[in-house]
Specification:
The chain has helices at 3-14, 19-46, 63-70, 72-103, 110-116, 119-122, 125-136, 142-149, 164-189, 193-201, 206-217, 219-236, 238-244, 256-266, 270-299; strands spanning 49-50, 58-59. By secondary structure, it is an all-alpha fold. The chain starts with a helix and ends with a helix.
Amino acid sequence: MTKEYWIRTKKALKNGDNWWALIFHFPNLLLFSVFTMFPILFAIILSFYNWNVVEAPVFVGLDNFVDFFRDDKAITSLQLNILLILYSVPTAVIISFLLAVLINRKMAGIQVLRTMYYFPIVISLVSSAVIWKWIYSKNFGILNYGLDFLGIPPVDWLGDSQFALIAIAIVIVWKHIPATIIIYLAALQSVPTHLYEAASLDGAGYWKKMRYITWPMVANATLLLFILNMIWTFFGSFDAVEVLTKGGPYGSTEIIIYYLYEKAFIELKLGYASALGIVLFVISLLITWLQFSLKKRGDK
């Protein structure tokens, strides 16, 4: 915010223009402060303490952060989380782009498709996970019924450590696709139509238009969606793991956010759990910074 912004704001407050705006924003600011800013600040402070809720907090400085790098289980959980991101984020972005291009076209039955793609976003992740638990069922699931129809032996999707993380990634992709499509649709509809008209006059076909016009014009949206999907997967996958596998089998789906939950609310190591949350936040910032840096380097 520039100096001119604060000067204009100060003048507007003196004139009484913004007081009504502040009054109407106050409830939201109050809720945001109580339920978002205060927990964040409390977690930062708590990460420097050992606290089990029952006894008084003990200041330990940076010990909780040092313990993270000595905790093999935490490192493994972080690696599983990165693997989950690698499974889910590119898949969600690519499928959403293709569906957004399809939905953006005028064709028979498109209104039905435009209605259907929005369904996953109106269902909570817990409800979605319950539905998918039935779909993945080894004995009664529709997925294994389809495999059996094709002559393929049934798979224990949630009980086999080889498939459990992939099964959770599929649920996350299904849940993230609608919001990703909405952002892609906004980007696609902002592409100037005269670019396609000029390309058509030059004899460009559908795939050349897609490669040289559509894809470059939505590149910024793609970068944003990679970052958003990564953050959603990092911080929003707990519900799916809790309902589908509870971290199993044999810890194969115990991602870092689930490990954090176990430390905080089962073992009551709130200081260490807060330190895990801060580490997770810093890693997200570093990955976001890296993606923006690569984008800037690519633009030069």
